[in-house]
């Protein structure tokens, strides 16, 4: 298999630099060939069916996707080919990692032994950390869905084995670098939850959003609340109580139900409207005494709450509190936009001064 270096991609890279928003956080996706990098981003961000990914061709050059569903979910995903090989030029490492927010390294859990994958992970992490120590390193132990991983015990053993090998190698090299590990599959919710955790680390306003959600659930007697990006079904924030996977899956599935029903019954007669807008809301009563409640809070951003039925007796008060929450969210993001404009104006002023 032929190896490709940065020099092979340099012309393509320069085109991407010109065409992209340089102030958007970057998520780099790396790993060996056929580890599942492209499949992950197609399923999460482009609504491709997991079964369709079997027919995807291998990535042959750096593929950049711009994700801008709303004011909070805005970043670039850089998908590197599995054949990509670093050269010894420090300048190429600088170009790749300097503006990177997170590096997602995908390991095929079914491709044992993991010697080659772990060697590439180790080399990539050292290079990236040297250029940019602020990068978040995320390891997706992917494809834990075959016959080899029928039990949770096998999955945990696989994660423990990889975690131990990576940690020991970094320790032997006297490197204090933190890596996060996730067990993922495109055939269940695990990949969406893992990517949610990655994206949250890039959202500067996350502590403020969590604090606002804590206030909301306390005043409304809500059991659990998530803020979902409706397009990708990743959650950008939740309250400070622990995330229960079953609750997350229920809330995530509700997004699909609302969009599907809205597409059938909620479109305008002309057919030119969106299935999801600022009037979108939904209420689903479960047979276990719980209520799922969805409200739109911002463009393609939904608040999904899990509430006990006896605590949903005064819906008008809950709606009032959610309206207050929406106003607070809009103020948080307007501050972000104003700061961006000020930074842009300052940069333009500096450029003119230099001229």
Major sheet summary line: 6 strands, mixed
Quaternary assembly: single chain
In total, how many beta strands?
11
Q: Write the H/E string, N to C.
A: HEHEEHEHEHEHHEEHEEEH
Q: How does the helix and strand content classify structurally?
A: alpha/beta
Tell me what the structure shows.
By secondary structure, the chain is of the alpha/beta class. Helix content is 44%, strand content 21%. It has helices at 6-19, 37-45, 90-97, 115-131, 152-172, 190-200, 206-220, 245-265, 315-354; strands at residues 26-31, 63-68, 74-79, 100-108, 136-142, 179-184, 222-229, 235-238, 281-285, 290-298, 301-308. Strands 2-3-1-4-5-6 form a six-stranded mixed beta sheet, with helices on both faces. α3 packs across α4 and α7 (206-220) packs antiparallel against α9. The longest helix is centred in the last third of the chain and has 40 residues, at 315-354.
Briefly, what is this?
The chain is an alpha/beta fold. The protein has helices at residues 6-19, 37-45, 90-97, 115-131, 152-172, 190-200, 206-220, 245-265, 315-354; strands at 26-31, 63-68, 74-79, 100-108, 136-142, 179-184, 222-229, 235-238, 281-285, 290-298, 301-308. The strands form two sheets. The protein has a six-stranded mixed beta sheet with strand order 2-3-1-4-5-6, with helices on both faces. A five-stranded antiparallel beta sheet has the order 8-7-11-10-9, with helices on both faces.
Entry keywords:
355 residues, alpha/beta, six-stranded mixed beta sheet, five-stranded antiparallel beta sheet, 11 strands, 44% helix
